[in-house]
């Protein structure tokens, strides 16, 4: 199983980024997926959720209206479109899959929002 994130970087406040997570080693289309983030000195927090078929999504209050999670099951990829970025969005962003008795994480991609 592999989850490989990409798309992070340095962006100014108010800017946008799109993160991608390419999954392999399992049947991507039958699993719900999540994006988490972890800022320095803080606990990892759930940012967004998407159901296996993409019809259901949910977001942390702190990102509602600014972030959009989506997926392309044909490409085994989940995305996180981030707009109106704020300095407090600075964190390492992780792709996540939960399964019975275990869970899988990507290596993370750094997002830094700074002028």
What does this 3D model show about the protein?
With 115 residues, this protein is mainly beta. The protein has no helices and eleven strands. It has strands at 2-6, 9-11, 17-24, 33-38, 45-50, 57-59, 67-72, 77-82, 91-99, 102-105, 109-113. The strands form two sheets. Strands 2, 4, 5, 6, 9, 10 and 11 form a seven-stranded mixed sheet that branches. It has a four-stranded antiparallel sheet with strand order 1-3-8-7, with no helix packed on it. A hairpin with a 4-residue loop joins strand 7 and strand 8. The radius of gyration is 13 Å and the shape is globular. The mean pLDDT is 97.
List the helices and strands and how they pair.
Layout: E1 2-6, E2 9-11, E3 17-24, E4 33-38, E5 45-50, E6 57-59, E7 67-72, E8 77-82, E9 91-99, E10 102-105, E11 109-113
Parallel strand pairs: 2-11
Antiparallel strand pairs: 1-3, 3-8, 4-5, 4-9, 5-6, 7-8, 9-10, 9-11
Question: What are the salient characteristics of this protein?
Answer:
four-stranded antiparallel sheet; 11 strands; 115 residues
Q: Secondary-structure element sequence?
A: EEEEEEEEEEE
Kindly report how far apart the N and C termini lie.
37 Å
Please indicate the percent range of residues in DSSP E strands (runs of 2 or more): over 45%
Poorly predicted ranges: none
- Shape assignment: globular
How would you sum up this structure in a few lines?
The chain has 115 residues and is mainly beta. The chain has strands spanning 2-6, 9-11, 17-24, 33-38, 45-50, 57-59, 67-72, 77-82, 91-99, 102-105, 109-113. Strands 2, 4, 5, 6, 9, 10 and 11 form a seven-stranded mixed beta sheet that branches. A four-stranded antiparallel beta sheet has the order 1-3-8-7, with no helix packed on it.
